[in-house]
């Protein structure tokens, strides 16, 4: 059996966070968080899994630091493009007392915005078609121009036809989109392509006005998504697969410190476990175990020694 190969497409940015007496700097991004946690789980469990991150950075020292940090986490960075005239994007997180957070973005001139303009699409297809699973999010889609989105959609369609599985998380952030209609249109196209949709009810409600999770499922039914996971925060998630619906509850958490990367880490746990066991119940439970640990610590990336043991 060959090593499972996972390609994660997205953007990692410089992260600023208010701290006592000033501002802390780190690196962050939804897809990068998922890549990092998947890589850790594979390493922890001795699974033959290659997690590759596809993005673009500058040639500056901060971009160098990012790459070094990813490589330290055993993420394959051989497909990260570097542009000497561009820099990484930037975002800031403000935590509310309840543990929720607000995001502010500065990414209009980020290196990754040039990725599809400067890279050879046929070469990219030839590389990506060798992967078992390709993962992306709505935040990835939000940085694309209309023409880039068309090129990217065609690329994903070809990859799906070649046998790659497509996994997608809407991760809707209103501030990143010009209009709701633009986000709706792009998400609908990805729903059609997705084999695995890892959605959050709150996001779907905000964007499409759904009044209940069942209304969300009814709206998505025509897209015939093989695995649909509808996350509902602390309560749990609804998994629809193989013609069945199953509610999978979360585990009790003593204290929520920071919900940054809750969804990203859930996705990592889910995808990792499903790729190794092909069991959606185990996958959802693995997602809950990892996310439940992550939210009890500050920041998107917890210390390696705080990682939970996931074993079924």
From TrEMBL:
The keyword Transferase applies. GO terms for molecular function: 2-dehydro-3-deoxygluconokinase activity; ATP binding. Pfam families: PfkB. InterPro entries: Carboh/pur_kinase_PfkB_CS (IPR002173), PfkB_Carbo_kinase (IPR050306), PfkB_dom (IPR011611), Ribokinase-like (IPR029056). The keyword DNA damage does not apply. One of its GO terms (biological process) is DNA damage response. It catalyses: 2-dehydro-3-deoxy-D-gluconate + ATP = 2-dehydro-3-deoxy-6-phospho-D-gluconate + ADP + H(+). Signal peptide: none annotated. This is 2-dehydro-3-deoxygluconokinase. Keywords: ATP-binding, Carbohydrate metabolism, Kinase, Nucleotide-binding, Transferase.
